Amino acid sequence: MRRVLPLLLATLALGMSACEKKSSSTNAAPAPTGSPGTQAATPAPADTLRIGVLASLTGGEATYGISARNGIMLALQEANAAGGVHGKKLDARVYDTQGKPEEAAQSATRLLTQDQVVLILGDVGSSATLAVAEKAQAAGVPVITPSATNPSVTQKGDFIFRVCFIDPFQGWVMAKFARENLKLNTVAVLRDNKNAYSLGLADTFVRTFTELGGKVVADESYSKGDTDFRAQLTAIKKMKPEGLYIPGYYSDAGIIARQVRELGLTVPMMGGDGWGSDKLFELGGSAVDGSYFSSHYSPDNPDARTQKFIADYKAAYGSVPDAIAALGYDAARVAIESLKKATPPSGATLRDTIATTHDFPGVTGTLSMDAHRNPVKPAVVLKVGEGKTTFVTTVAP
Question: pTM for the full model?
Answer without folding.
Answer: 0.76
